[in-house]
TrEMBL record:
Coiled-coil portions: none
All residue ranges annotated as the PcRGLX/YetA-like central beta-sandwich domain in the record: 131-487
Residues annotated as domain PcRGLX/YetA-like C-terminal alpha/alpha toroid: 493-903
InterPro entries: PcRGLX/YetA-like (IPR045793), PcRGLX/YetA_2nd (IPR048330), PcRGLX/YetA_3rd (IPR048331), PcRGLX_1st (IPR048329)
Protein name: Tat pathway signal sequence domain protein
Any single Pfam family the record assigns to this protein: PcRGLX_3rd
Length: 910
């Protein structure tokens, strides 16, 4: 078993003076033959220079093999030449030890420009470097503007946030509540109970000088039980007054007893000044702002004076009451003070803002709208707290709440699941329909609704969700203009990126090229790729694929009769990464550099890595096949939890949570000890797993395992990952028929080797390589000098779409009537490139055009607008499916990269 400390080992091995893991940096010996690299241009993903950052920003840059050693320092400057303080650290290495990926961080207080240049050199130091102090009870981070204290144990994950010596917020807690019955079944008695997050450990993952990362772990507890484990990371930057928070929790309850009716984070905010100088702000849609005071002095029957009214509305301190019209001053006590406010976004299409004077009083509706940006503020001209949640309207039911602002201390709460919504109901959606045996499950549901049901397997126990939050400790009530800037940064945290041409030149992520419209044939194919991507992306909004557990996924297959995706038909509903949708979306971003493409892929990565996979329990490390509920299907497989789908986001952003998820998968081969993927079709009764001879598939299964090991190796983790990766590739290639060897092929858990019969036989399925195996092998062969592995893999790629005669000549048998031949056009293209075979190159393009199990050359890459009354809402309809789109996209992208020079525009039919 890989040691659980591998992530710590990786951090230590990859640390550098510019951005180190906690403890002393590890210096690498100089590597011979380093070539260096020209400065890299960087731009903001959404374009232009953002007005505000979410505390700061962290991004990744790739480097060609042999360019730099892992301890290389980097400097950053605006295009005008102004030096920008930057913290840098390596996140990935090439096999020769040179740096493959680096991460870089700048503060929101850093000089802002539309473009920057990153180069080797000594980084500029921040004016006031961020510092971290670790005491017995607290870890304290001082950014130079704010000082944040984190409790090392107990129920206050953040004990205080100070600015200029004043406490802006304190007693930061994680809170949750549950009820024992759903709110929809009409139970006569519903019992509720509350929980508070209790910190069990705090770890300093980075300690400056520009960026600090504090990781807190624990679970939600009361005096009766503890559950809902959490991992929360806090990101702070030198010179910044903001804290970025990444909150992750795992559901470990019983779906028929534990109905979560509240999940959030709240702070106590000391209130200063008179009630009329206490301010509340809510961001609406776009640039909209609701500006209120706890005790309003506008619109009264008596006028306190224009300057007084203007100051309150703008969030400034009002002139002394002695200067007001005394008819107002003498009657202030009769003006109600509204100390409680709520902005509830209970669905993706509408929010409401309400307020009340206090507990036990009715709520007054203040306003409403469609989609709130997800930021609020409570405070005064002497300071206050802005608090918000990213994807606020996309992840309903959410809420921002302020209570007690008329007293000495307000409570500011971000609710990731609003207490005002129906309780979270994670129960299975049907009663099993009598599918009690494997035979009934195979010939019943799977054969009619495509759902692979099994009693007890449709459980959410162990699934997770990650939410991003931002908090600003402000010196005063922000202007409306500044508040909208903060709201925009919270809603879409600005990110620096390198252009596609740079990443392509660095040689990362296998076979792809930047968009190329240099010939009519290429331009036509690029248009198809754009149209297909745009259609699926826009379906998210048209079909309202939003919600706490759903946002980030797309649907699998369409139902043209109802003009809807098959959201209620078994295995045709949520996609759950089926046929590598994640890979397609990331390669589309890499090629285009398009911001919408990045955000689409980012949302899917956040979702599929958390919700579609198990993070604790006996199925930890496995994902769930596509279905009506993300966890409904009984097929629990490593092909879905696949680290290959996450590594793009990790290397492009250095996101620690995704890094954790990938690291957790290095031991996922152990899941074959507890769950037999072939249990429903295996002859001879239940399997007694033997660690030295496990039934791990050498294609779909091994490809997912290999992606986890490849990533762990790149990141400098436990060397067993590299050993298992290389052992697996070598021993599969050594089988008589390599990746199509039939018979009793087994896997040894201890070292990752495969063994099998000495005689040739063939066993192959269409899904063997469409869950990332092709992409993993493309990268692996480029990284290691293993001629036998290369030859065996190239043979597989050449033969998949070959004639039966060619297959028989090479493997002793034909491969049967294989499916997904368009998808495997990229395998043919890879063989053509490796062998220098122009005939194979032309065959690859013909396979793509023929479109078997995909989109043929004459497929319409267009959509039709469907209006009511045929549909509930106007939608665009097209002949696309997630399976076909993902595989067509990957095949076209890789064919362009590998054999693009052989693409000819086909003659048009008359």
């Amino acid at each position: 078993m890989l040691a659980s400390s591998a992530g710590v080992a990786a951090a230590a091995a990859l640390s550098s003076a510019g951005g180190r893991a906690h403890g002393e940096p590890v210096r690498q010996a100089a590597l011979p033959g380093l070539t260096g690299h020209d400065p890299v241009g960087l731009r903001w993903l959404e374009g232009g220079a953002p007005a505000a950052l979410a505390a700061g920003t962290t991004w990744g840059v790739s480097w060609p093999r042999g360019a730099f050693a892992p301890d290389q320092e980097f400097s950053l400057a605006t295009e005008a030449g102004e030096q920008v303080p930057v913290q840098s650290w390596p996140t990935g290495r090439w096999p020769d030890g040179s740096v493959k990926w680096t991460a870089h961080a700048i503060s929101g207080a850093a000089p802002r420009a539309a473009r920057y240049r990153l180069r080797s050199g000594v980084p500029a130091a921040p004016g006031t470097p961020l510092t971290v102090r670790t005491g017995n009870a607290e870890v304290t981070v001082d950014t130079g503007v704010i000082e944040v204290a984190f409790g090392r144990t107990g129920d206050q994950v953040v004990t205080s946030i100070r600015r200029g010596g004043a406490v802006i917020a304190r007693e930061g807690r994680l809170v949750a509540s549950r009820q024992d019955q759903p709110g929809t079944d009409g139970a006569a008695v519903v019992r509720s109970e509350s929980f508070t997050g209790v910190v069990r450990s705090v770890h300093v993952e980075q300690d400056g000088p520009v960026r600090a990362v504090i990781k807190a772990e624990g679970r939600h507890e009361n005096d009766r039980r503890g559950w809902l484990p959490f991992v929360v990371r806090f990101y702070l930057y030198a010179g910044s007054d903001a804290i970025r928070v990444v909150h992750s929790f795992v559901f470990d309850g019983k779906e028929d007893e534990d109905f979560i009716n509240g999940l959030g984070v709240h702070f106590a905010v000391p209130m200063r000044g008179a009630l009329h100088d206490r301010h509340v702000r809510f961001a609406g849609e776009g640039d909209g702002v609701l500006a209120e005071a706890v005790r309003g002095i506008t619109g009264l029957r008596r006028d306190p004076g224009a300057e007084v009214r203007r100051a309150q509305y703008e969030g400034r301190a009002t002139p002394g009451t002695a200067t007001w019209d005394q008819r107002v001053t003498s009657r202030l006590r009769y003006i109600p003070a509204f100390g409680d406010y709520s902005l509830g976004q209970l669905n993706a299409h509408g929010f409401e803002i309400r307020k009340r004077t206090g507990q036990g009083r009715s709520w007054v509706r203040a306003d409403g709208g469609r989609r709130a940006e997800g930021l609020a503020y409570v405070g005064s001209p002497a300071g206050g707290l802005a608090f918000g949640m990213r994807n606020f309207w996309r992840l309903p039911p959410t809420e921002l709440e302020i209570t007690g602002a008329a007293g000495d201390e307000a409570r500011a709460a971000v609710w990731m699941w609003s207490p005002r919504a129906e309780a979270m109901d994670l129960r299975f959606y049907h009663d099993g329909l009598g599918q009690d045996t494997y035979a009934e499950q195979l010939e019943g549901g799977l054969a009619i609704t495509y759902e692979d049901y099994e009693p007890g397997f449709g459980t959410p126990y162990g699934v997770a969700r990650t939410t991003e939050l931002t908090f600003w400790a402000l010196a005063a009530t922000p202007t409306a203009e500044r508040f909208t800037e903060l709201a925009a940064a919270n809603a879409t945290p600005p990110l620096l990126v390198a252009n596609p041409e740079h990443h392509h030149a660095a040689g990362v992520f296998g076979s792809w090229t930047p968009v190329d419209r240099s010939t009519p044939a290429k331009a036509e194919l690029e248009d198809k790729l754009d149209a297909m991507h745009r259609f699926h992306r826009e379906q998210v909004d048209q079909r309202s694929w939003y919600g706490f557990w759903d946002y980030g996924d797309i649907m699998h297959t369409y139902d043209p009769d109802r003009h809807v995706w098959r959201y209620d038909v078994g295995g045709y509903a949520w996609d759950n990464s089926e046929l590598s949708t994640d890979l397609w979306l990331w390669y589309h971003y890499l090629r285009t550099g398009d911001a919408q493409a990045f955000r689409f892929a980012e949302a899917m990565t956040r979702h599929t890595g958390e919700v579609d996979a198990y993070h604790l329990g006996e199925w930890a490390g496995l994902g769930t096949r596509h279905g009506i509920l993300h966890w409904a299907d009984s097929a629990k497989q490593v092909r879905v939890s696949n680290a290959g789908y996450r590594r793009f986001y990790y290397f492009l952003t250095a996101d620690e949570r995704v890094g954790d998820l990938m690291h957790d998968l290095v031991d996922s081969d152990r899941s074959f000890l507890v769950l037999d993927p072939l249990r429903k079709i295996r002859d001879g009764g239940p399997l007694d797993p033997d660690p030295e001879a496990l039934p791990v598939g050498s294609t779909t299964d091994w490809g997912a395992l290999a992606a986890a090991w490849l990533t762990e190796w790149e990141r400098g983790g436990d060397p067993i990952a590299r050993t298992k990766l290389i052992n697996g590739a070598r021993t599969i290639a050594a089988l008589p028929n390599g990746w199509v060897q039939g018979g009793d092929v087994t896997y040894r858990l201890s070292d990752g080797t495969f063994s099998g019969p000495d005689e040739k036989s063939v066993s192959i399925g269409a899904l063997s390589s469409v869950f990332g195996l092709i992409e993993v092998m493309t990268e692996l062969i480029d990284l290691v000098d293993e001629p036998e592995v290369r030859d065996a893999w190239v043979s597989f790629c050449r033969l998949y779409n070959a004639t039966e005669e060619e297959q028989r000549a090479a493997t002793g048998a034909g491969w049967g009537n294989l499916n997904l031949r368009q998808a495997y056009a990229r395998a043919t293209a890879y063989a053509a490139k490796q062998l220098g075979d122009e005939g194979l190159a032309r065959r690859a393009w013909q396979e793509l055009r023929t479109g078997h199990a995909g989109y043929p050359e004459d497929h319409p890459f267009t959509s039709e607008r469907i209006e009511g009354p045929a549909v509930l809402n106007p939608v665009d309809e097209a002949d696309f499916s997630a399976n076909a789109s993902a595989q067509f996209g990957l095949a076209a992208i890789q064919c362009l990269a590998l054999v693009g020079e052989h693409l000819e525009r086909p003659a048009r039919r008359p």
